Model the fold of this input.
Amino acid sequence: MDVMLDLRVPADSQLAVPMRRDEFYRRGSADELPRKSEWYDGLCVVTGGSRSHGAVTARIVVLLAPHVATGHTVLVETGWKAPAGHFVPDVMVCADDEPGSPYLEGRPVLVVEVLSPSTRRGDLTRKRELYGLDGAAWYWVVDPEGPAVVVFERRDGNLVEVQRVGAGETGVAAGPYPVRLAPDELVERIRP
Done:
């Protein structure tokens, strides 16, 4: 018998509920799970969004879109059904020739996460580890508090920091796309 769960989460908060992966997919297909629900390490992790988080995510999409190679697509908060879990990164870039599934099942070229108070620790540690194991070629972490953008490249199954652009700095991304990274501009008018 399934138990009804209240998985509503306030903005910038996170809730983790023990759950099997098959139960996660069953509840998701029945639309019982909120849009930003992930599964890894035996937990359904639900994150509440916020206006500022959404604004930074939108700016990243606008920044990336002109540079993404033909045959690739920029995705926003789309599920990635990976071997180690089911993730919903803020932004992903993947090949267009992915099989017709509601989720990305291949390896993304780029995964981008925008840190928030509730996701900071996981995005910098466990999720980074799992994204590397599951084959993300590049991982960008955008920290609105710094502000900073940290670029990681996958090497031998690990995501290794290759670039950090901080407050007051600009730089061209080390990869996979030569976009201009200016953290102050990404968070302009949204920082407290």
